[in-house]
Amino acid sequence: MPRTIIENIVIQKYKNETFFTFCKYTTIRFFEIVYIEKGNGTIKINGKTVPYSDDSIFVFIPDDIYILQAETATTVTAIKFLKSFFRNTSSQNTTLPVNDWFRKIEEILNSESHQLREMQFETASDKAHLVSLANMVAIEYSNKQSNDIFIIQNSLSVILHLIARNIQYMNADTIKEVKSSKIQQIINFIHANIYNSELLTTKNLAEEFHMADNYISEYFKKHTDVPLKKYILNYKLKLVETRLKYTDLQFSEIAIELGFTDSSHLNKTFQSYKGMTIGAYKASIS
């Protein structure tokens, strides 16, 4: 079984502690899940302080800086995907679904409402499943001599899927709006199926949301001020930015994955969107 998963992921378990050192991984951490099993205190996230309590789950993305300040003895499990895990994805062991995992968390990377990092869940069962899997992964990981890579790999994959499925509920203030707004449902559908162009045709979207073909585009623009096709393209280009920033994928690989004819087509489209070539953008963030 591949060892890449162990070399590029750090899992830490703290029991009844009042001082934590896991922030030392900030500069090399790409994505992190923090499960607070019990305890009370605050987390200072990018200068903003929010409370935590028993059974809280937080997620952190690149460049997030946080400090956990315990008021009572706190038990924490932290799962950190290091930046190296998502680099050179095309050369990773083919049995590791690295690119699939990246897709699962990119919604968080591109979310405009991720200032509040505490996860919210649509159902209690989703949260219970995630907690159970996080505990299982921590136990397997701690046993360095005989840890079962198969269990760790598949548990982490499900954890990321659960987070991706519930990301629309991250901001508690928007839960009601997300559930009731048809336009938000359409946007969520676009995001969830961005790699399947057939599902994002005007005809299919109209069928999915029980609208006439010639009305759904009008409806979408009316509520977002952006034409439907342009929104889909712009979201794809946001994902291109994410891949250029966080992975070492070849431009041709990004083009194929996101449905562009080739790297030349991608480059021309990206330049119209961003005002610079993909090569220039990649150089500017390196």
Automatic annotation (TrEMBL):
Statement: the UniProt record of this protein carries the keyword NAD: no
Keyword Transport: no
SUPFAM superfamilies: Homeodomain-like, Regulatory protein AraC
Keywords, comma-separated and alphabetical: DNA-binding, Transcription, Transcription regulation
PROSITE patterns: HTH_ARAC_FAMILY_2
Family matches, as Pfam families: AraC_binding (PF02311), HTH_18 (PF12833)
GO molecular function: DNA-binding transcription factor activity; sequence-specific DNA binding
Domain called HTH araC/xylS-type: residue spans: 184-284
Highest taxon of source: Bacteria
Classification via InterPro entries: AraC-bd (IPR003313), Homeodomain-like_sf (IPR009057), HTH-like (IPR037923), HTH_AraC (IPR018060)
Record-given protein name: AraC family transcriptional regulator
